[in-house]
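Posting this for the archive.
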Amino acid sequence: MKKILLTTALCATLVYAENILLPTEKRTFDQSKYIPDISLVLDTSYVTRNADPDEVGHFEVPGIAHGLLGSHGHDGATHATYNAKEGFNLNYAELILTSNVDPYFSMEGVFHMSENGFAIEEAYFTSTALEHGFRFKGGKFLSNFGYINVQHHHFWDFGDMPLVYESFLGMHGINEVGAQLQWTAPTPFYLMAGFELLQGTNEQMFGNETIGDPEDPVAKGATAPSLYVAYLKSSFDVGDTTFLGGLSYVYGESRIDHTEDEESPHAFSGVSQIYGADFLVKHYFDSYSYLKFQNEYLYRDMDGTQYSVDENVTVTGSTPLLKKQAGFYSQLIYAHDTNWRFGIRYDAFVKNEIVKNGPEAFAPDNMDKYSAMIEYHTSEFARFRFQYNRNNALYNEDGEQQHIDTFMLQANISIGAHGAHDF
């Protein structure tokens, strides 16, 4: 009995010495206990469409965007959209690492690999110990603007981004280096407000870098950071039905460099704003079966100057340019069970006003897109989707409206531990 008591006392003394008497560096947080979760997501597809593969890269949504199908090039680089090629596509392999750092922070890295190169999709830290409902994030991350912007491609209900999002913000949405502060209110229902200060380098409508020779620029740059995002989101449950809604706003400098375009090289300098509203209803029939109705509306205002340039990137003319454009998408998703899902989506532009130095420019407004999909999951780690698109929003270089039918078979496979996605 005495031997047992002595042994217990000795153990207690050693624990005390390790935690109290040893130097401070020996008593710090043991990070080795937090081994990162690692996962890899692979996305491939087979695509066929009723359009010449050499021409689709030149189609545009008049006055709004170009290069939404196929590959296109500017700024000295070639960019390929998802599902860009006729036939087989290796869209990407995405490596994800996430873990708690210590009792105060977590960290996540998302690394995007494709045949076109390697990119850091996201790399950020998040506070886990702030009080009074506050949370801070810093690094490179997808903004919480709107609803779908914060989601990665492999979580989308369709193989392509909604038309209005991709047209206004590009296929990566608002994905920036910066800081985010969110506050969740102490209310009986979910209510969250957020603000983000971002560098401001969106590929489609924002930017702050000087265009052309710094000594004699086409458009002088702006001070960074230059992109501001604010939003308010709320949700509540009624029985087995969840309602989620939000209002979002983004303001930033715009420097858009198309000086290397083959047909009409130009650049834009000004300020831009987007107002967004999103609304979602999700009703659960049981643990696996549900019906989801998802909607977003975006309105953008771009005000500045468009510059025409020659082959030497010398300004040959400047024109005041004002754009007021708006669009939306609505989609309905039905999950029958853990294996089968079905969905339809409608995209449309409802406003397309473009004023260049007086008269309104060519800006058709009968631009929409229809999509339908059938999806089969062998498990939560593998899904196969067949999707059909009818795109009436694109015009060729002669100003003729195109009607593009696209058939796509997509495979999305993941391995490893991967954290839960936002609702």
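Confidence is low (pLDDT under 50) at residues 1-27, 72-79. The CA atoms of residues 70 and 252 lie 28 Å apart.
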